[in-house]
Amino acid sequence: MFRFNSGPKMTRRNVWSGEETMELLEIIKEHNFMQLFATATRENDVYQMIEDEMQKNGFGGKNAGQIYHKWKNLKRAFYQSKKQNKGRAICEFAEELAEILEKPCAFKRRELDPPMQAVDGEPAPVKRRNNSQVKTIRSQIVAKLTKAQTENSEEFSKKWNDLNDYEFKLYKRKEKEQTTAMNRLLEETKSSFMSRFNDVLAGRPLQLTNIGDDEDDEEEEEETDQLNVIEIETTDLAVTGEEEGGTVLGWCYMLYQLIAYYTIDKGTDRTLWEYLGGTVILFQNAALLEIVHAFTRIVPSNPVITTFQVLSRVMVVCGVVMATPTGKVSPGLPLAILAWSVTEIIRYAYYALNLVDAVPKLLIFLRYTTFIVLYPTGVTGELLCFYWAQSHVAATKQWSIEMPNTYNFTFSYLYFLWAVMLLYIPLFPQLYLHMFAQRKKILGSGSAGKKKSN
User: Fold this and answer.
1) φ and ψ at residue 411, rounded to 5 degrees
2) What is the torsion angle, in degrees rounded to the nearest 10, for the CA atoms of residue 344, residue 347, residue 353 and residue 354?
3) What is the reported pLDDT for 240?
4) 382 is catalytic
């Protein structure tokens, strides 16, 4: 081991700042002085070279002897820390010392940088390192804590994202299961509804089951109900016959007015609605009683079909023609009135004569044949009235409610008219085919004159 003479410089206390220590370690690492320590014959020359390099970089306060003792203390602290901490060094500048002491020495020594030349009139040039940092144990701990916090934050973010993805997958799977169950329930409900609707259209009775009653009580109730039905039908049919007779005359008068408007009174200045509107309003709205008669079983008409037929006509009269000026001049109005009047004359005449069991075969044939032409004609006229009326409703926003208002409610009469028009698409084929089924049932059997049907 080489020893340095204790000169005047050694009398100073060997206190190193963190910046000076970092500069020493950087010089040893950059210039591969560990290789010189292993191969040099005079170790004092190596420390002298380190001193010269530090002075050239602006750290001229340390001589070779102080550098020797500082390097010795750094190595001792590093190895003692590794021994005490089971091979892991925990001391100041542990990372830098590990990189120098534990890294194999390079066989090729890096050349020293040439000395920087001084310029006249300027201070001596000093080599300073960029971003020099004073490293202490506290700074190392803070750096490690920051690194660990960053790693933990990234890990937490990754786990959080994984948890969100897992919850989203669970939500999508549950939503898919609920959607499948809802679609299955809707299909079952739709099938059940269509089955019952077809039974009603076909005139088949619905099966109703009474639970909790004794057999004797059920028999007594059935007998009582049958007697009550017979009494009601016997009493009210006579009244209905008078009503039907008057209704036939009313519709005949409406048909006469329609024909007279285009023949006898052809040159009149009045519109068709002004000519016969009062008659249409009276007799068409009076048809609402048919719904009551059908549901109370006063007449054997199908209540569902009767409701659709009557309400569609009342809607045309009250909600379209009476409500809008464009509906009154629609080309569909004469078509609808012609189809309605002819149909009702034949139908009510059939009902009236059927009460006395005197329906001629020609009337039966007309009852179940003329609908083939009159039904599409009437529907076409009704739809034309709707179409002519919607332009006025769209321009004036008639009977529509817009936001904001007190009740926080909105309603568009224009959309309502279009919704009613669209209902004709599924309902018209059902009713039309039902009439064909009735025609086959009545005209194809031998007891046509004895049957009562709608």
Assistant:
1) -150, 135
2) -150
3) 52
4) yes
Q: Which of 375, 407, 415, 432 is catalytic?
A: 375
Residue 380's pLDDT is 95
CA trace torsion 131, 136, 139, 140 (10° rounding): 100
Annotated active-site residue in 47, 351, 382, 413:
382
- Residue 375 corresponds to which tokens in the numbers above? 């039904």
In angstroms, the CA 301 to CA 297 distance is 8
pTM, entire model: 0.47
Please say if 375 is a catalytic residue.
yes
Cα separations (Å) of 171 from 9, 160, 164, 166, 167?
A: 78, 16, 10, 9, 6
- State the pLDDT at residue 123: 54
Q: Taking the CA of residue 450 as centre, how many other CA atoms within 13 Å lie in the half-sphere pointing to its CB?
A: 3
The residue type found at 342 is V
86 conformational bin, left if phi > 0, alpha if psi -120 to 50, beta if neither: left
Task: Kindly give the parts of the chain with pLDDT less than 50.
Answer: 6-11, 106-112, 130-132, 208-239, 446-454
